[in-house]
Structures are given as C-alpha cells and as structure tokens.
Amino acid sequence: xxxxxxxxGGREHAIVKxxxxxxxxxxxxxxxxxxxxxxxxxxxxxxxxxxxxxVDFAAKSGIDYAIVAPDDPLVLGTVDKLSAAxxxxxxxxxxxxxxxxxxxxxxxxxxxxxxxxxxxxxxTDEKAALDYISGESFPLVIKADGLALxxxxxxxxxxxxxxxxxxxxxxxxxxxxxxxxxxxxEFLTGPEVSVLTFTDGKTVVPMVSxxxxxxxxxxxxGLNTGGMGTIAPNPYYTDEIAARCMREIFIPTIDAxxxxxxxxxxxxxxxxxxxxxxxxxxxxxxxxxxPETQVVLPLLKSDLLTVMKATxxxxxxxxxxxxxxGYACCVIMASKGYxxxxxxxxxxxxxxxxxxxxxxxxxxxxxxxxxxxxxxxxGVTAKGETLKEAxxxxxxxxxxxxxxxxxxxxxxxxxxxxxxxx
Length: 422
Ligand code: AMP
Ligand code: GLY
Known about the structure:
This protein has 422 residues and is α+β, with helices and mostly antiparallel strands. The protein has helices at 10-19, 51-60, 71-76, 78-84, 94-101, 103-113, 126-133, 159-170, 239-259, 293-296, 304-313, 387-398, 414-417, and strands spanning 2-7, 27-32, 42-43, 65-68, 89-90, 120-123, 140-144, 153-156, 182-186, 192-199, 204-206, 211-212, 215-217, 221-224, 229-232, 266-275, 278-285, 327-335, 349-350, 358-360, 363-366, 369-372, 376-384, 401-402, 406-407. β13 (215-217) and β14 form a beta hairpin. The longest helix is centred in the middle third of the chain and has 21 residues, at 239-259. The chain is globular and about 60 Å long. 49% of the residues are buried. Residues 118, 141, 150, 153, 155, 185-188, 192, 214, 271, 282-283 line the site of adenosine monophosphate (AMP).
C-alpha cells in the first residue's frame, strides 16, 4: 500500500513513524516533509498548499490512501479534491474544516447548540469593535477569525492593548483577510487540556489527553509559540471530567456538525479550559495538534492506519482504539531566539540510541548533512511508567541531541506534576 502524508513538521514525522509500523505499507511519501524525515519516507518537493500539484502527484504515483495533516490544506479543500480524484483520505472536507478555519463559525456553532465556551461577540466593523471593547473589563481576548499561524489570539490586559490588537487586525491587516472579521471573547482561567479525537461523523473516540506548553520561556513566560513541549496524559483531565466532556462537548459537536450538513471525519481537536464552571471549549482544530501528536501517537497501541481508515470509511464503531497506560513527554528543541529572529544552518547530531523518539520539524539536508532550518527544529519524546519518569527520560535524551544555538524549556511537565497539589 502506498501512503501519502501532506505536511512537513514534527507532527507529520510522528504520523509517518506510526504508519510505518503497518506491515501492508510499502512506501510512504511525505510532501514536502523535511530533511530529518528522509530515513522514514520519500520526500516530495511540493508545498502543502499546492493543491493541484498534490492531486496530480497522488494520482500519478498510485497512492492508495492520503493523510492531510496541516490546517491550511484542509481548509483549502485538499481532501475534497483528492477524494474526487478517487483517492481516499484522512481528514475533514472543506465544509467541515471551517470549524477551525473560522472562529466566528465555531463560536456561533457552540452558541446555537449549547456547547460550553467563553461569551463572545463577532465584529466586521472596526468602529463597532472599538466601541464595544471600551465598555468591557480586562483581560479581554481578541481573536482573528481565520487561520493566522497560531498567532491570531491576543490576550489584552488593558483597553489600550485591546485597541491596538483590534487596529492591527482590522486596519493594518497583520493577518491579511484572516483579521477582516474578529471575535472578542471573555477571558477564562483554569488548566488547559488538549483532547484529540478520532471521528467518522457517527462515533467519536477520544485519544489520550495532553498538555501543550505554548509560551517560549520557563514558567509560562515570554511570547506564544507553536508549542515548546507536551505531556500526556494530562493529569488535570480526570475520568469524571472526561465523561462530562464526552456528554457536554464531544458528542454535541459531532451532532451539531451533522445537523449543519458539515459531517466531520478525521481528527477533531478540542482545546479545552477546565474552568470553575466546568470544561469549556477554547478552540477547535480540524487536525492533529503539533506537538501533541508527538506524545499521543507514541502511546497508541492500535494500528494508526487502521484507525484512520475507519474514520474515512465510517467503521470506527467496530475498530478498537487502545492506548498504553504510561506517560509520554516531548521537549521541543528550538533555534535560540524563536519565535522572533533566529539563525539557522547549523549541523544537527542525534545519538543513535535516541533516534527513535526524535521528530524533526525545522531541519534540512545540506551536502549530506542534517542542518537546522527553522524555529522549532525537532522534538524529543520519551515514555515512562510515571509522568516524572517520562519527563526525566526526555531530558536525558535531549542531552544526546546537539546543534549550535539550541534552546529548549527546562520545565516541560512541571505544572502537570503539581496537578495533585493544586
Ligand atoms: P489558540 O491560538 O486559539 O490556540 O489560542 C492560544 C491560547 O490563547 C490558548 O491556548 C489559550 O491559552 C489562550 N486563550 C484563547 N482563548 C482564551 C480565553 N477565552 N480565555 C483565556 N485564554 C484564552
Ligand atoms: N499545539 C496546538 C496546535 O496544534 O494548535
């Protein structure tokens, strides 16, 4: 069986490594992938947003199943086009991917179907937005409606910050058309949990829960990043909370999408906040999280490709999805300076004994050597029977990976370890 994976980061590398375990898989193509994946898949130099070229490549190469991992190609309708060309795909079609593609859509959906989320208002007019925020209390959350590389959310601590966020999105268009519409939202507090789920539009199966660490610096300080590390499962997410989320959030969301004629198939990611008033949805993503995938998939006992196909073909109710009992921790090693300016082009060395749990993102091959090529260079994952063991092992592995100007957080999982004494 020939498999195509669209995307090029650590998440895609984790997917490739999991798919590779299936004995029926003869070849994996990753598009565009990155140099760090060259041992695991065939790299195809086509961008993840070049839809027509992707479909053309898939048809000519006899791809049996395609996995579209990143948000952009999903929102652009890559799954629709591959399916129309007769290639079955993992991931939602364009109509369903809007659940991530438009925050206004997802907020309206939650309001209409009574799914718990922060109170909000949507604006397309800058003056109306500015008038509204002048009467609000702070912090206040300002979100660009569309995709914005994970940077479209501003937590404004004061009226002045909120005004400048609205202006930068609506007037200066720093996120282009993604900011033509904005959502202004109540600020919620509580531990955050990421829950990725498999769904075929009828059955929804949550994966093991996880916790991202979005800020650049230790102690959750500094700028927001694409994610500096993850742990799974998330100890704040108890069985009782999980049952409540299934009842109040997951099933109602799948039902709501069906009622809207936007059946969702693939991985639906619930970004939740466990507030004093119960779990609430912070965001939906129409895809696997990065770097959540790098801790969730290593704990998956079942065959990933079998489960993915079950979401496509509507047989998830008959497909076992099992996870190991232990814990996993992923530490992201970045280029110093990320998410602002950083240097690249430095040689990366990884000791043979830790290669298994290393997922490459910003890496490329140059003259036969692997060199840094991005802000988040790679993720190092380890598993353990306890969370503490997983964290210690991940940091021990990090010591066996080196490149000039490497930076990583030293406290991934520290907050989760304290969950017991909150
Ligand atoms: P997002 O880019 O949508 O993942 O949001 C980035 C981060 O902003 C989230 O992980 C939360 O930490 C924070 N955030 C988003 N919405 C809210 C909210 N209503 N209240 C508090 N924090 C929020
Ligand atoms: N780690 C957050 C995301 O993938 O959106």
